[in-house]
Amino acid sequence: MHFLLIEDDQRSANFIIRCLKESGHVVDHATNGERGLQMAIGEKYDALIVDRMLPGIDGLTIVRAVRATNNSVPVVFLTTMARIDDRVEGLEAGGDDYLVKPFAHTELLARLNAITRRAPASQVKTVFRVADLKMDLIKREVTRANRTIELQPQEFRLLEYLLRNEGRVVTKTMLLEKVWGFRFDPQTSVVETHISRLRAKVDRDFSRELIHTIRGAGYCIRHVEETGQNLEL
Amino acid sequence: MLKRLVRTSSFRLALTYAAVTATTFLVLFAVVYLVATKALDRQLRQGIEAEYNDIVAEAKEANRGELAREILERTTVNGLSFGYALKDSAGRRLAGSLLGVESVAGWQNLVLPHFPGTQDHDHEMLALGGFLPDGSFVAVGDDLQPTLAAQEVIVKSFAWASVLALALSVVPGLYVGRRFLRRVDIITATSNEIMSGRLRERIPVRNSGDEFDHLAENLNRMLDRIESLLENLNQLSGSIAHDLRTPLNRLHQTLEDARSRITEPVELEKAIDQALVDSESLQGTFAALLRISEIESKSRRAAFMPINLSATVANIVEVYSPVAESEGKMLTSKIAGGLEFIGDEELLVQMLANLVENAIKHTPPRTNLRVELKKENQCAVTEISDNGSGIPEKERKKVFERFYRLEQSRTTPGNGLGLALVAAIAELHSISVALEDNNPGLRVVMSFPDNEAHYYS
């Protein structure tokens, strides 16, 4: 995929560029707001990665300007400010997601994957299938190998989120935010506990595991045909 | 002192009063003077007129010789102060002591150098004169002196009264002003003491219940608050320095060790992982500190919205029941439905989660945890309780301070900011949080204010 990174801090930019290139993406880099805005409007990108604090035009203004041209390119804000108001402002200006520095490269990749995935067709998708697992959102029913699996509401939401991101890694932070509405780091193993409960219902009685733990990154639901296959980050 | 005194508001007030008093006196004086003068003048003229008419009536029946005798007689009668004049048609004086009178009909003023029968000089007289049918001239005059004397008395008494009244209004003004200044001086002196570093100084209160006492009490309360805030700040900076230095030192140690000693790639990886964990914990501490100060700035109040408190609490229970279970504990709940609250959902979720996590983390295995939401006097009350080891009573207040950790929990992971965050979120929402004894264990009681009416109005 083709990304535009607007970031003035060289060390931070190098880190991001390296980790995106390692994952096979192409990255353009602008070191100030004006150049970044020109590039964002002049070319078609799969996503913009915009630092909030920039010399010249700041990140919020860039994204507002881009949105004003009816450009709906996905945007991830980067910031050193962990304030709640800042996040709200970022999302109101038209950002799709928000990352507080410092972050792990897996977090950035997972979030970019999540926001670039949203194809218009998938928004009306009401049935998800992975291997023999099937989730029907309208009937609120989950089956595996035609056996009904009873899920608690939160387990249902968790599985739904994993399925919407099928084949992609979702991080713990993403799960906390999207499934439980937690915007803080719990001091207990909330995510691990719920994943293991979900696994007990979805995977335990079946020969093939569908929910995978990606060490140091997060979780992923996918159908693995052969063992040892690399996961796309 | 005098210069300041003159500038005090009470002195200025006294001065204003004095001016008002002076004006009142002046108006009063003018009215009394005019009315009295007029009355005296009328009385004098009436007397003269009566005497004149008497003489004229007398003259109709008597010849001039008899009239002259009559006048002479009247002049010598004691107790009558009238003066007379009788002149023939040629203007020669026939009788009477009014020497300077002019032969003109009507009223006239004249000055007598010496009034017969008195020791006085320069008597001013008022006289009424007229011609008799035979052309002779007759006049009756009376002394103006009593009128003038009365006028003088009025002027003098008013002048004295004015001076006295002015003095009476200025002197108390000065006195009150001095007292006022003295008390202001005490406050100034106290504030100087405080500014020079003696933070424990307080303004003396006289217990008289006056405005100065109220002011002093308010200022003292403000000083108490500032002092405790300063103390907190001092403690906080100390704690931050200490609590951040320890992990920083650890981080430094790990990295130095890795640099100088470790050669095995696996060991190196381990060291780097450890360093990452340490730096993450530092980041977490900073994030929590920033969040607390953001919450304390109260800017989040603008984002308050109606939330379904029952659902929020139920959600927390649903999230943490499995977590408690995996730790060998049991989380039960009793949640009243349909309770609403105006607030910041994200923060309330964090507050409840922090408290439940504390209960899970800091209790021994097989502890029972309970979350309750109920309605008491139209207000929501949430209780989170456990039957663990509890918190000693004297520590209960301190646990809400930043970086404060109980002795027994120093070894469990955590940054000592969880309850400080709870306190900040509760304060933002005006929720009162009480730590109570659950016999055994701890019960956290959160009383939510009834803030819906306020929001919807």
Percentage of β-strand residues of chain B: 15-25%
Second rung of CATH, namely the architecture of the largest domain in chain B: 2-Layer Sandwich
Query: Would you list the SSEs of chain A in sequence order as H and E?
Result: EHEHEHEHEHEEEEHEHHEE
Name of the top-level CATH class of the largest domain in chain B: Alpha Beta
Radius of gyration of chain A: 19 Å
CATH-scheme architecture of the largest domain in chain A? 3-Layer(aba) Sandwich
List the helices and strands and how they pair.
The complex is a heterodimer of chains A (233) and B (457).
Chain A: E1 2-6, H1 10-22, E2 26-30, H2 33-42, E3 47-51, H3 59-68, E4 75-79, H4 84-92, E5 97-100, H5 105-117, E6 127-130, E7 133-136, E8 141-144, E9 147-149, H6 153-164, E10 170-171, H7 172-180, H8 190-202, E11 211-214, E12 218-221
Parallel strand pairs in A: 1-2, 1-3, 3-4, 4-5
Antiparallel strand pairs in A: 6-7, 7-8, 8-9, 10-12, 11-12
Helix pairs in contact in A: 2-3, 6-7
Chain B: H1 2-7, H2 9-61, H3 64-76, E1 83-87, E2 93-95, E3 106-114, E4 121-131, E5 137-143, H4 145-195, H5 211-260, H6 265-296, E6 305-308, H7 309-326, E7 330-335, E8 340-343, H8 345-361, E9 368-376, E10 379-386, H9 418-428, E11 432-437, E12 442-447, H10 452-456
Parallel strand pairs in B: 7-9
Antiparallel strand pairs in B: 1-2, 1-5, 3-4, 4-5, 6-8, 9-10, 10-12, 11-12
Helix pairs in contact in B: 2-4, 5-6, 6-9, 7-8, 8-9
